[in-house]
C-alpha cells in the first residue's frame, strides 16, 4: 500500500524535503484489530510537532495522521462489534484500558496513553491506504455523516466536547468565549456551545469572523487586535443590559495559550471557568494571579477525551445539529503543501488528505 512517510525531522518546517509517498507493507489485523481502507484523513498540529521532532522525538520512519475514516476490509478473530463493510472513524487516544485511571473513565489520563499517528510507530498512522486500529479505538460513522466529515471531526469534536461538556460542565444560558473560532476545535466549540443554548462570542482573524457567525456565533471579534479583550467586554456589557446578568464571560475555551491567556482571565466573571487544551502561540503565559484567587476562577486543563464523548459528538452530527467545517482537500502527493497551509494558519475548519 501507499503511505506518506518521513524518516528524518524537519525543524525548519521544510516538509517537501522529508515527506515522501512510499510503498509499505499492508497491515494484517491482530486478533483485536480492525483494518479499513482510507477514504479521508485530517491534519492536526501534532503532525507538525512530529515532523519537527519537538516536543518529543517520535519514532522514525514515521507515518503521521491521527484522524481517519473509511470502509472496514478485515477484522481480527476477537472483534465483536465491527464487521467488514462498516463505515468507521478512528478514536486516536490509545490507552491501556485496565489501569485505575482508564477504568474510572479517565482514559485520557492513562499513564501509558499514546496519541495514535503522533507517538505511535514506526509506520503507524492515518496517512496510509490501509489503516489498522484496535476495535476499542473504532467508531461507526452515523448515517448522514460523510467520510470527509467524520475524518474532520475525529480528534477535534472529541477535544471540544471533552473541554466544554466533560471538563467545564457547560450549562444553558452561559456566555461563552470561544478563542480561535476558525480552527477545527474552535469551529466545533462554537456549535457545541450553541447546542447548549449559550450566547457565544468567538474570536478569530479578520477573514474568519463572518464564518464564525455562520456557524452560530452571536458575536465575532478580531483577536489580532491588541485590545481585543476590551471589545469582548463591551459586548458582555450589552448582553448584561438586555438580560440583567453580570458583565463578563462565564466560560472561556482556550487553545491559543501564551499571547491571549491572561486577557481571558480578566474577562471571566466571579466563579468563571477557563478550560485549555493547548498553547498554539506558546506555553509560557504571564498570569496575574489576582484574577484567579480574588474572583474564584477555575482554570482547567483538558486533553483529548473518551470514546463515548466522541460518539456523543458524532451522534449530534448525525442529527444535523453539528457539522464539520472542511477548508480544503489534498492528495498524499500534496502532503507538503497541505501541512504548509496548516502552519500558515490560512484555513477555516479542517484540512483533509486522501490517497488520490
From TrEMBL:
Pfam families: ADH_N, ADH_zinc_N. The keyword Cell division does not apply. Keywords: NADP. One of its GO terms (molecular function) is oxidoreductase activity. The keyword Signal does not apply. Residues 17-353 form the Enoyl reductase (ER) domain. This is Oxidoreductase, zinc-binding dehydrogenase family protein.
